[in-house]
Amino acid sequence: MTKESTILIGFIVLKFLLQYHLISPEYELQRDEYLHLDQANHLAWGYLSVPPVTSWISYIIKLLGNSVFWVKFFPALFGALTILTVWKAIEVLKGNLFALILGATCVLFSSLLRLNTLYQPNSLDVLCWTALYFFVLTYLSTEKPKWLFLGATVFALGFLNKYNIVFLMMGLLPAILISQQRKLFLQKHFYLAILLALLIILPNLLWQYFNNFPVIHHLQELAETHLVNVDRWSFLRSQLLFFIGSLVVIFSGLYALLFYKPFKKYQLFFWAMVFTLVIFLYLRSKSYYAIGIYPIYIAFGAVFLANLLRVGWKRYLRPVTLLIPLLFFIPMYEVAFPNKTPAYIIENQQQYKALGMLRWEDGKDHSLPQDYADMLGWKELAYKVDKAYSILVERNKTLVLCDNYGQAGAINYYTKQGIKAVSFNADYLNWFNLELPYTNLIRVKNAGSTVRELEETSPYFHDAQIADSITNSYAREYGTNIFVFTGAKININERIKTEIAAAKRRR
């Protein structure tokens, strides 16, 4: 085994160790993770929330036992593969051992550590962006058509994982057009690669078509409820924070793309970044959508700096460039990861508030970061719903209906009673089982709905009671109520069908 291979393996092992260390045991899975895991039980070519790849990974996790270890393994794996891809890009650029170590260090000690703690499409999204850039880079270096086809395959995988990768192409194609590489548009292999990508994503496009393109509704809803609160200056500031310890390397890479002669044929990468960031800014996108842009530029910067600091007194600056990402990681370790208890965060709110971590999607500051609050109270909810469910006489005729997908997903993940909770929210809208006539209803309602729920629902049942509520004050679900209604006076199934139809019309 070569020295380079040994060092690379060391970085990958360290990556996995850090990912499992950066989550305090007080935290559970995050609400999105429960939804993604439940998709394994409803495999399809598309979902209201995400494309299908996440469900395929969830199915693998299910086969492996559905434990938290495996839930956290895959985002860590995608992060490790991102390091590997940058490493290979540096090799294509003929970087030396120092460049390889510098690039791996910059990617390792970055916001990807935070991103890779959650089982969401984002980790694979960043990997696909990096891999697609890598294949474009390799094609420009070799001009071998196989790299175009590999790039098309990665684009298709990225598209089937998260539609966000479309913005990469929206920035990359005009960058190619204004560069010396515009001759690519005259190559038949370029169009064959596009055809390959279209064939791979076609099943999902057909699913979108036959389901009235729910992605369009999702984007509209996102724009109206979340993106409207996105500040463009905040977006730009966040870009500096994602790889703050690597800014010298990234800016060096951008400089090299414009002025370093060996990188002349790669100059389109500079404009690709500019175009993509402009598009994100115009659309008021969430800041983390752009994270996938940066790893490949670390490769350019690492090679440039390795050559710049090769001789004379400059070589003494090499240890400094390696230390900078690590030094920036130390304060990040204290505040940027869910490795501190909720009580500690509340006692030290100012440092979290200064970094904007307490601002939720509603544009307001709260006691905990939103993701952290979304990682609490779920076991309690599932336990209490299980308890309410277990004392019912006709359990197989009981519908467990939740207000949101996090509640339904968590109940289905932790239940010991085999409950299949549903909701009119997200993908659960399509997962109702109406084959059995329901006579009982367990209603999981958000906080503040006690009186209204009893007034509206109890007339349709012979008995109504509040079974319990979520008491973890740190949880975003704090105060969520669990109602039990038994002895239906109406046909619940028909009522549910009406509600489902109404919800789908709203979409």
How is the largest sheet built, in terms of strand order? 2-1-3-5-4
Structure summary, number of beta strands: 5
Distance between the termini: 56 Å
Helical segment count: 23
The helix/strand series, from N terminus to C terminus, equals HHHHHHHHHHHHHHHHHHHHEHEEHEEH
The unreliable regions are none
Average predicted confidence as pLDDT: 91
Give the C-alpha Rg: 25 Å
Helix and strand content put the structural class at mainly alpha
Helix content: 55-70%
Strand content: 5-15%
Major sheet description: 5 strands, mixed
* Quaternary form: single chain
Rough shape?
A: globular
Describe the protein in words.
With 507 residues, the protein is mainly α. The chain is 59% helix and 6% strand. It has 23 helices and five strands. Strands 2-1-3-5-4 form a five-stranded mixed sheet, sandwiched between helices. It is globular and about 85 Å long. The mean pLDDT is 91.
Mind sketching the topology for me?
Blueprint: H1 3-21, H2 31-38, H3 53-63, H4 68-92, H5 97-108, H6 112-115, H7 121-142, H8 146-161, H9 166-177, H10 188-210, H11 214-225, H12 232-242, H13 247-259, H14 268-282, H15 295-308, H16 318-335, H17 342-347, H18 349-354, H19 370-373, H20 378-390, E1 398-402, H21 405-414, E2 422-423, E3 440-445, H22 450-457, E4 461-469, E5 481-488, H23 492-506
Task: Please supply descriptive tags for the structure shown above.
5-stranded mixed β-sheet, 507 residues, mainly alpha
